[in-house]
TrEMBL record:
PROSITE patterns: PPM_2 (PS51746)
Main location per the UniProt record: cytoplasm
InterPro entries: Dcp1, PH-like_dom_sf, PPM-type-like_dom_sf, PPM-type_phosphatase-like_dom
Keyword Cytoplasm assigned: yes
Region (Disordered): 164-186
GO biological process, any: deadenylation-dependent decapping of nuclear-transcribed mRNA
Cellular localisation: Cytoplasm
Family of the protein in this entry: Belongs to the DCP1 family.
GO molecular function: enzyme activator activity; mRNA binding
The keyword Cytoplasm is assigned to this record: yes
Protein name per Swiss-Prot or TrEMBL: PPM-type phosphatase domain-containing protein
């Protein structure tokens, strides 16, 4: 059958469901639909699979799609009216649709449908087509609804009344893909297995950065409406941050009638909670609000969301490529989604993740570490240790007898636990103790971080040694500093908690700095992994003699300046390892101003803020200079920009990245820390350095 005749017949069939169809835009021969459950946060088959048609209508909504079910008479359709209702991943097209109303007047849950397309070529084309049409959609009242085929699809044979489905037994004369039509036991089985693999992958993708939920923030800040200011705690509203700062929905209020505060309103709210009341409540619960698709990939709750990076009072990130052709620096901010069963002690609350990654020799390794390291921390498991260490030992050289002490000890604990007889345990005890194959062994955060760093390095190396289509290997590398912070009180964010824990994991020459709240002095909590570090030179001289000094007097190991790094495949056998430097610190809140104790026992562990920087900054600025710059700015965002600008003024020729994170010791209600009496130790020196640089530049001209 020629394509023109086939299109005419298909159009005739579809017109029975939707009389307003004008023409078919695109077709995918075989798709399978899945439903996303907000309650269980999991995907299940919808019971609809068949041919997907995208078509144009002569009245709003102007673009729609329908899947004609090949198994039953229940078809499924939807409209393409807003890009906020569509999410595209490498394997799936995810569509959100509003439900009309819930049972007995209750608020209805919007539906999330995943569209899996068997043919990879069709998948990319259909995703692009649906995204383009969604951006062209109108903003009228029909926007985002599931198509009610009882009205919109006025079927000749009698339509069902359920939104998104129809009872019509018409089989369109479409030509299915040969694989989709094959007999059981043939290629059809291959299609089913491919579909099942994608279903398994989507569970991970729902919680990945591609789905927009990796950096969800779920901590709470008190916000005081005009009716209740400090002292009337019983009436205090809460502001929840999800990658987003959000406000709890009043009981009984609809999620579709909620106001997203503007940045100005948000910053006023964050400031006002410690000061005098404003004229009105900036978080008006009666203002209309539209929820976005990404809101639904989150445990159910009465939250609306806006991006965390707009909350500049708590986090600031700035970067510059300097004089380089490309910027190989990367940064990542988010919250780790570790299973509750693997958390201990202070780590029962939200675990915040901050990292700065500095790539070299290309951006491939930096991109990989930025996008995946947090996932390896989340999924670290003692059962991975044996294969991981064996893989390193097989590389020979420095790693021939590779036995990192903490992981070897953890492996021994696992082996001892697994020697107990399974027969002696009841089924319930067995599931509780051995349910994840780790023998019930709990990892410390230090062990988890070391395992994650080595695992990420191993996976990148294994991929880098495979030649791609151009017969080139990825020989790039990266260094990184990661900071994990959590409050000991799960109901408080770390910057307002009385006690929080900070864990640092670091390889290379990126740096993490803390500012003492009382003295204003800088504290470096990482060390550079350079050949001139006595511990590093002692570690490597046993296995290699590749230490050289370049023309600038800087000692190098082979062709690299860092003795510990991710990637750098050419130098792995010589000892360039991803074993991280680890450190744990306690962070405390300052003593209350009305306290009789002038300096509490934990005053030395009160820090105002944390700074993570790449070596493009530290190569030209001292630790104290970096810390002092922050004291002259009202928000971490402005401070991060100022630090990068200072490095550029001093003539750094490397990529520069800075991240500033607010901690408990930043005084409430105070803008610039210098206004609170915190001393700037390097103000005059910084001025002289910048002026001298400018004078030298004018002379050279």
């Amino acid at each position: 059958m020629d394509p023109q005749t086939l299109s005419t017949l298909n159009l005739r069939v579809l017109s029975r469901y939707d009389p307003h169809i004008t023409h078919i835009i695109d077709v995918a021969s075989y798709v399978v639909l899945y439903d996303f459950s907000l309650e269980t946060q999991s995907w299940t088959k919808k019971g609809v699979e068949g041919t997907l048609f995208i078509y144009h209508r002569n009245e709003p909504p102007h673009h729609a799609f329908i899947v004609l079910n090949r198994n039953t008479t229940q078809n499924f359709g939807g409209v393409l009216a807003s890009p906020d209702d569509l999410q595209v991943t490498p394997e799936y097209i995810i569509h959100r649709a509003d439900a009309e109303e819930g049972p007995e007047g209750e608020e209805a849950e919007d539906t999330i449908t995943g569209i899996w397309i068997f043919e990879p070529g069709h998948r990319a084309r259909i995703a692009e087509q649906m995204s383009k049409l969604s951006r062209l959609g109108t903003t009228g009242p029909e926007r985002g609804k599931t198509i009610d085929v009882g009205s919109l699809f006025a079927s000749v044979g009698g339509a069902g009344t359920t939104a998104g489905s129809t009872n019509a037994g018409i089989v369109p004369p479409v030509e299915l893909h040969p694989t989709a039509r094959a007999e059981p036991g043939g290629d059809r089985v291959t299609a089913i297995r491919a579909e099942e693999r994608c279903l398994a992958q989507v569970r991970e993708q729902v919680m990945s950065s591609e789905m927009g939920v990796r950096s969800m923030w779920r901590y709470v800040i008190p916000i005081y409406p005009k009716q209740a200011w400090p002292g009337k705690v019983g009436h205090v509203q809460t502001l929840t941050i999800n990658t987003a700062i959000t406000t709890n929905r009043p009981p009984g209020a609809s999620s579709k009638h909620h106001h997203i505060p503007s940045i100005t309103e948000l910053e006023e709210a964050l400031i006002n909670h410690a000061g005098a009341p404003s004229n009105s409540n900036p978080l008006n619960p009666t203002a209309p609000h539209r929820r976005y698709l990404r809101d639904y990939f989150h445990p159910p709750g009465s939250n609306v969301r806006i991006p965390i990076l707009t909350a500049k009072t708590h986090l600031g990130v700035a970067t510059s490529r300097g004089n380089r052709l490309e910027n190989e620096d990367r940064s990542q901010v988010g919250i780790l989604e570790m299973p509750r069963g693997r958390r201990r002690g202070a780590w029962l609350g939200d675990i915040f993740y901050f990292s700065v990654v500095d790539g070299h020799g290309g951006h491939g390794c930096a991109d990989f570490i930025r996008n995946t390291l947090h996932s390896y921390i989340e999924r670290a498991d003692p059962s991975q240790i044996s294969d991981l260490l064996q893989n390193y030992r097989d590389r020979g050289g420095y790693f021939r007898r590779f036995e990192p002490k903490s992981l070897v000890d953890l492996q021994r604990r696992l082996d001892a636990a697994n020697k107990q007889s399974y027969v002696e345990l009841s089924l319930q005890r067995m599931l509780a103790r051995f349910g994840r194959g780790n023998g019930g062994v709990q990892m410390s955060m230090e062990e988890r971080l070391e395992l994650a760093f080595l695992k990420a390095d191993q996976v990148f190396m294994n991929g880098a040694t495979l030649q791609n289509a151009e017969r080139k290997r990825d020989l790039s590398g990266a260094v990184a500093s990661c900071a994990l912070v959590t409050s000991s009180d799960p109901d408080q964010p770390f910057w307002t908690a009385n006690h929080a824990e900070l864990h640092i994991a670091h390889v290379g020459d990126t740096r993490v700095l803390l500012c003492h709240a009382n003295s204003g002095k800088a504290r470096a909590v990482t060390v550079n992994h350079h050949p001139d570090n006595p511990l590093e030179s002692a570690r490597l001289r046993k296995f290699a003699s590749g230490f050289v000094t370049d023309s600038f007097g800087e000692e190098r190991f082979g062709a690299v300046a860092n003795t510990r790094a991710f990637g750098d495949v050419r130098w792995k056998r010589m000892g360039v390892s991803a074993e991280p430097f680890l450190q744990k610190l306690d962070l405390y809140a300052p003593s209350p101003k009305d306290s009789d104790v002038e300096h509490g026992p934990n005053e030395d562990s009160v820090y105002a803020y944390m700074v993570l920087v790449s070596d493009g900054v530290t190569s030209v600025a001292s630790d104290q200079e970096i810390i002092d710059i922050v004291k002259h700015h009202t928000t971490p965002s402005k401070a991060a920009e100022a630090i990068v600008k200072f490095a550029e003024q001093l003539g750094t020729d490397d990529n520069s990245t800075c991240m500033v994170v607010r901690l408990q010791g930043w005084p409430e209600g105070v803008g610039k820390l210098v206004d609170a009496g915190v001393e700037d130790f390097t103000g005059e020196l910084r001025g002289w350095r910048v002026e001298g640089r400018e004078v030298g530049g004018r002379r050279r001209q």
